[in-house]
Amino acid sequence: MPSAAPRGAAADPDRLATAVRAQTEQKGEQKGDTDKRAGRSTYRPTTYTELVDDAVAAVAVAVEDGLNRLEVEFPAVSNVDGYKGSSDLYIDANIQLALAASRKLAEVTGKRVHLLLPDETEYSRAAEMFKAALAASDNVSMGHFREGRPSLASTFGNILFMGVGGREVDGPQAAAQRADIFIAINASTVELADLEAYCEETAKERVVVAWNMELDTLRSDLGLLGFPPKDLQHRFLCTFKPVFYIRQRDYSKASPPTPAPLLPLPAVSVAVAPFIINYSGALSGKDDKRRYNLGEFKEELMNAMGLNTESEGSAMAFLRRGYKTSTWWEDDEDKEQSKAWRS
After folding, report:
1. Fewest C-beta atoms under 10 Å: which of 67, 153, 298, 328?
2. Which residue windows does the record flag with biased composition (Basic and acidic residues) (predicted)?
3. Distant-in-sequence, close-in-space partners of 189: CB < 8 Å, separation ≥ 6
4. Taking residues 120-139, what's their average pLDDT?
5. Lowest mean pLDDT among 24-38, 69-83, 237-251
6. Quick check: bond before 264 cis, omega within 30?
């Protein structure tokens, strides 16, 4: 994927996606690949730079196609399993990758990109930590989901620091008004409601990208006590179309036990080597294809690994899969206001 803007692309945004596609197809021809819009059976990026470049190109094409709610998902840190690992490491690495993507996206499209943190505290920390990178990034700014509803501290700060003629010093809210594309990162489930409000009140019809937010993980908390209701998926999260999607999953399969003897002898279960088989894989998004649900993906992964050894319809197959192989948000298709997230 291109890492720099085609000559003249920034000056003529309407020609952007055509130029991006042309460079993508040229690179694909050099590698012997097919059109990336048709998907590919394998994807083996060698660096995070390549991942970011490919994600930016996918976003740029989607923007030119008129889409305004987009999802980008890929493993943000190679040795940390999302928020289950070191959260600070994950959060900071995700900010760094999102900043790199923002710079590339602004360069390729000629548009202004506004990077969104969940709240004012996260914003202040990130703005200080990545101050030099922000200063060196043209057409890239940073803010947070609640910037349109400033806290007492930020309001007091604006009173103290007024610009010439009594005008407020340029801050996140002013930068957001000029932005064309918003990239939202590092939200928790409870903060999704703030993102929804931001999209309705500030971003409106402009492009919003959910960047490495692990939306499938966040969806699982909806409806629980203290979290937003499931309707947030039906009316809001369902509108985000995955344009670059790599979701890694890890599973384990225990080796089958030896048959237990008939009663009245005591039932004894002895596992055979290698006792437990750990396996993992990545679900990669393809344009215009229905995404696998999580149960289907696990089955496909087991088939690829040669681990799906139980006979179809057997008791062992039922016990392994269970009665339910899909999640509530995968089943609630009739309640959704959009099918965009399923592609």
Report:
1. 153
2. 24-38
3. 218, 221, 222, 227, 228
4. 94
5. 24-38
6. yes
Report all structural domains of the chain as residue ranges with CATH numbers, in order of start: 13-247 (3.40.50)
Phi, psi of 112 (to 5 degrees): -90, 135
Give 136's Cβ-side CA count (13 Å radius). 7
* Pairing, β 69-73 against β 181-185: unpaired
DSSP string across 126-177: HHHHTHHHHHT-TTEEEEETTTTS--HHHHHHHHHSB-GGGPBPP-HHHHHH
What's the token pair of residue 108? 């390729």
Are the beta carbons of 77 and 93 closer than 8 angstroms?
A: yes
pTM for this entry: 0.73
How far are the Cα atoms of 77, 81, 83 from residue 89, in angstroms, in the given order?
A: 8, 10, 9
Pairs from 329-333 (Cβ < 8 Å, separation ≥ 24): 329/219, 329/222, 329/230, 329/233, 330/293, 330/294, 332/230, 332/233, 332/234
- Which amino acid does the sequence have at 206? R
What is the overall mean pLDDT for the chain?
75
Q: Contact, 54 vs 45, CB < 8 A? A: yes
Ramachandran assignment for 244, one of left (phi > 0), alpha (psi -120 to 50 degrees), beta (any other): beta
